[in-house]
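#dry-run=false #mode=assembly
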Amino acid sequence: MSDDREDREKDEQLARWLREGPDPQAPPRLDARVSASYRAALARPLPARLWHARLSVPLPVAALVMLALVAAGALGREVRWPKLGGGGSAASGLAGLKPLAEVQIRVASKEGR
Amino acid sequence: MDELPRDDELLRRARKGDAAAFARVYERHRDVVFRFAARLSGSPDTAEDVTHDCFLALVSGPDRFDAGRSALRTYLCAAARNQVFKRLRAAARAPGLLEDDVAGAEVDLPLQINRAAAVQAALAALAPLQREAVVLVEYEGCTLAETAEITGAEVGTVKARLHRARAALRRMLAAHDERPRPRAAAGGCHE
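#status=ok
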C-alpha cells in the first residue's frame, strides 16, 4: 500500500535525522566514581551492612508474624499474675482470707427502698 | 570458544565483593544506561548521577533483579527511567507530568542551529513519555515489546506514543529545514 510505504519512508527519513550528531558519552570520571562507591559499599563494617540490609517478606507472612507476636504478648500478660500485698505470690496473698460467717442478701430497688 | 559469563552470574559474584565481576557488568551496560538517561533527561549531569545510582543499587540494595524475568539491560533501563522521571517530577513540581495526555510543546527551532542541535531541541520539546519511546526505539534499537517492558506500558500504548512523537518531530524538523535562513550580516560574527 502506498500510504504504508510513504509512512515507512517518512520514518526512515526521521531515523536518519535522529542519528545525526554524536551519541552522549559517559565522562571518564563516572568510572572512577562508580568504582569508588562500589568499594565503599562492599567495605562497610558488619553493623553498617546489617543496618542497611533489607529483608523482603510477603505481606501475609509479615501479617502472620505480627499477629503471632501480639498474641504471644497478650498471652504472656494473661498468665503473669499481679502481685498482691507486699510482694508474696498470689497463693500466699489468699492465705489469710476467711469466709464470712453469715451472708445476708438484700435486694434494693432502684428507688432505694 | 569460551562462553562469556552471564549477567546474573557476574552480578551474584559482584554482590559478594568481586570487583572484577562488577567492572564487567558495568562496562557491558554503562553506555546504554548513560545514553538513555542523557537523552531522556536532556542533562549529562543527571545522566551521570542516574547511571551511578543504578549500578550501585545493583550491588548494595535489595536483590530485585530476576534474570528469569528480564534481561539486565531492560532492568537497568527501567531503573534509569524511574530515576530520571523522579528527578523530572521534582524539578517540575508537577505530579501529572508523566500522563499520556500531557502534550509536548512543539517549538520553532532556532534557524542558526544545525540539524544535530535541532534534533536535540526537538527531542527535548516532546512530552516525556513520547520522548522515552523515541529514545528507546530509535536510538537504543529496542523492540516495541522491550520498550513496553521498560516503561511498564502496553505495546499498543507504546505504539501510540511513538506515532505521536514521530509526527511531532517530523513537523518540528521539517519546519526548521524549510524556513528561509536569514542572510549573514556583513563581517558576521565568528566563533
